[in-house]
Design brief:
Order of helices and strands: HHEEHEEEEH
Strand order of the largest sheet: 2-1-6-5-4-3
Strand content: 35-45%
Number of strands: 6
Largest sheet: 6 strands, mixed
Helix content: 25-40%
């Protein structure tokens, strides 16, 4: 059985990267949600709060990529509303056609069926350290 938080994150991914439907994505995100992409190596990193800032961030991301497909490889349940996801991302730059691949980690919190917080990390160890958990990796 899939974790309900992971299901919501995957629905969000599909809304953005399969359907390219920002409104469908925002329906899965709390209006006051915070997305912290400040540790991202991508050019669109930053800290985004609320639907208005997230809409701008999503538009920039969609303009940069013809394809962007994060696949969940590992799920660590932190508590009833938070998970740490290890992902493998494959993408192709818009215009350039350059393929990219990366592994990373992200922490997602969900309340009442909507994402309230998400943060990107470059590694599982960095995410576990930020959560105050000792990394065995």
């Amino acid at each position: 059985m899939t974790n309900p938080i992971v299901e919501i994150v995957e629905q969000l991914r599909d809304a953005l990267w399969v359907e390219r439907d920002i409104d469908a994505a925002l329906a899965l995100i709390d209006p006051g949600a915070e997305f912290d992409w400040s540790d991202s190596r991508a050019p669109y990193g930053g800290h985004f709060k609320g639907h208005r800032e997230l809409t701008r961030a999503f538009e920039v991301q969609m303009d940069a990529w013809d394809e962007w497909r994060p696949e969940v490889e590992e799920v660590i349940e932190i508590d009833a509303s938070t998970v740490l996801l290890m992902t493998h991302v494959r993408g192709r730059g818009k215009g350039s056609g350059v393929p990219v691949e990366a592994h990373g980690a992200s922490v997602w919190s969900v309340r009442d069926g909507r994402v309230t917080y998400a943060k990107i990390f470059q590694s599982k160890a960095a995410a576990l350290d930020a959560l105050g958990l000792r990394s065995a990796s």
